[in-house]
């Protein structure tokens, strides 16, 4: 799932692995393959299947709109906006939250080889010597692939650690209240004179691009709470914000301004040009 970012592709990969594993087990029982470590062999098989899928997607340029899993995202290829579906199967939502939506968004920006090298080494501790034949590179080159990916994933922030921690508490409280549709909790975390701005492309018909005041912003947030269920913390240009990423596909970014431990303003960015100018990374672990 971490490599392919989607349940449908992952299930297909597991099915193919199961068929390959059964054949290998049958052959090995007869002494045909001489596999010493079946688990390691299956890891290699799965990774190669995933890599083939990623390379195929890249060749067809289907990363942003992937009909295989039934999801729809904004069309960043220049053909105009498409409707965004802010819903996921529960199992996929749990997986996405456990991995982190910011990580899923960043992984989509990596090349297939970078993604495989990073996920296998940094998330599953597979040695570079074992990853190298999977991506068809030397161990040294594979290490560089993972290093480049790691730099993209982690990003940089000039915000002092103490300030970042306070902002994390506020942004997390805002997201939790939005997901719960808790009007009281939203009013507690929003500044009385909060201003919400948004790109029109992300708004339902009839919703204003600018909303002022805690009561109005909180009521709108409750109305649109389905969007918060596919949102997660992220570093956006070095500051804490939120990414809205159904199926791990970036649909919008919330740029939040925090003052006196409350959300004083936030801008919902969905325009492809504006999104493309943002640097998104995974926030450092909470302390």
* Strand percent estimate: 5-15%
Strand tally is 7
Sheet having the most strands: 7 strands, mixed
Mean pLDDT: 81
Question: What would you call the structural class?
Answer: alpha+beta
CATH architecture of the largest domain: Roll
Question: How much helical structure, as a percent, in the residues?
Answer: 40-55%
**Tally of distinct domains:** 2
Strands side by side in the biggest sheet: 2-1-6-5-4-3-7
SSE ordering: HHHHHHHHHEEHHEEEEHE
Radius of gyration: 21 Å
Ranges with pLDDT <50 over ≥5 residues?
Answer: 29-33, 62-82
Count of DSSP H/I helices: 12
CATH topology of the largest domain: Nuclear Transport Factor 2, Chain: A
Distance between the termini: 27 Å
* Shape type: elongated
CATH class of the largest domain: Alpha Beta
Describe it for me?
The protein has about 290 residues and is α+β, with helices and mostly antiparallel strands. Helices cover about 50% and strands about 15% of the residues. It has twelve helices and seven strands. Residues about 30-35 and about 60-80 have low confidence and may be disordered.
